[in-house]
Amino acid sequence: MKKQSVPLAEAYRLLEPGPVLLLTTADPRGGRPNVMTLSWHMMMEFEPPLVGVLVSGRDDSFAWLEANGECVLNIPTADLAPQVVACGNSHGRRRDKFRLTGLTPSPASRVGAPFIDECYASLECVVHDRGWVARYNLFVLEVVAAWAEPRKRPRTLHHRGWGEFAVAGSVLRLPSAMK
Ligand SMILES: Cc1cc2nc3c(=O)[nH]c(=O)nc-3n(C[C@H](O)[C@H](O)[C@H](O)COP(=O)(O)O)c2cc1C
C-alpha cells in the first residue's frame, strides 16, 4: 500500500513506546504524594538499569522529581485505563489523584515515592543524571529496586496519541542472540 505523508508533529504516534507508566513522587514538604501518567520513556542501560523519562516542566511532578531526586515507575494494565487517563489530565497540587481515581499508594522499600498497589509492576528509581533536564526535560533514572507480580501476559497500555491506546499482551518467542 502507498504511504501517505504524516504531519511531523504526529510522527511520535508511529513510534509506539513501551508501556504507559504511572510515575509517583513524594511531596518534598511532607504532604500527600502525587501520580502522573507518562509514556515518553526509554531503556538506556541493562546494569545498572537506566531509564530516560521526559517530564514536562509544566507538570507538578517535575518540581517534585527535581526536589527529591526519586520516584517510582508503576506499570498499569489495561483494566486501569480510566485511572491512567485521569492521572494524565489533572494536576497534583490541585487534586488528590489517589482520592480522585481510587488508586492505592503504599510505601516503597528504597525511595519516598509510593507504589501503586493496583499496578502489576513497580520500579523504584533515583535520579542518576540531570545533564539533559535543562535542555530536554529528560531525567536519566537508575532503577534501584524492581517488583512485579508473576503474571504471564500482562495486558499493558501503549499510547498512540489523542486518547488512543494499543493493548499488548500476546507473546512471540524467537531465537535471540541478545538479552
Ligand atoms: C497517555 C498519556 C501519556 C502522557 N505522557 C506524558 C509524558 O511522557 N511526559 C509528560 O510530561 N506528560 C505526559 N502526560 C501528561 C501528564 O500526565 C499530565 O500533564 C499530568 O496532568 C501531570 O500531572 P502533575 O501536574 O500532577 O505532575 C501524559 C498524559 C497521558 C494521558
UniProtKB/TrEMBL annotation:
Keyword Flavoprotein assigned: yes
Listed transmembrane segments: none
Keyword terms: Flavoprotein
InterPro entries: Flavin_Rdtase-like_dom, Flavoredoxin, Split_barrel_FMN-bd
Gene3D superfamilies: Electron Transport, Fmn-binding Protein, Chain A
SMART domains (UniProt xref): Flavin_Reduct (SM00903)
Cofactor(s) needed for function: FMN
Top-rank taxon: Bacteria
Occurrences of domain Flavin reductase like (ranges): 13-164
Protein name, as recorded: Flavin reductase (DIM6/NTAB) family NADH-FMN oxidoreductase RutF
Family: Belongs to the flavoredoxin family.
